Amino acid sequence: MKTEAQKIVQAMSPAQKLRAAERLYYSARELKAAALRAEHPDWTDEAIRQAVRAIFYMVSGSVAVIIYGEPRLTHDVDYSF
Asked: Potential cystine with 21: which of 11, 38, 50, 66 (Cβ 3.0-4.6 Å)?
């Protein structure tokens, strides 16, 4: 049985899914920047931007899953080095 969220995502076109993924990506960047500012009040705005950029440098396959695949939870953690 599919959840309401799954039904909504499946009804979206690839373009709509890409736009939703883009909004989530930029929201995550903003939240991470706010968390870094709280953790490191002495950091400059440029240091915050660099840290956020480093964290969000890699675009993973999960974006492709959001656009083309079935929503799922894998219970794993992805690392990039």
From this structure: 66
- Whole-prediction pTM value? 0.61
Three-state SS letters, the chain: CCCHHHHHHHHCCHHHHHHHHHHHHHHHHHHHHHHHHHHCCCCCHHHHHHHHHHHCCCCCHHHHHHHHCCCCCCCCCCCCC
C-alpha 80/C-alpha 43 separation (Å) is 24
Is residue 43's pLDDT more than 50?
A: yes
> Which candidate, 67, 39, 61, places its Cα nearest to that of 52?
39
Structure tokens at 3: 């959840």
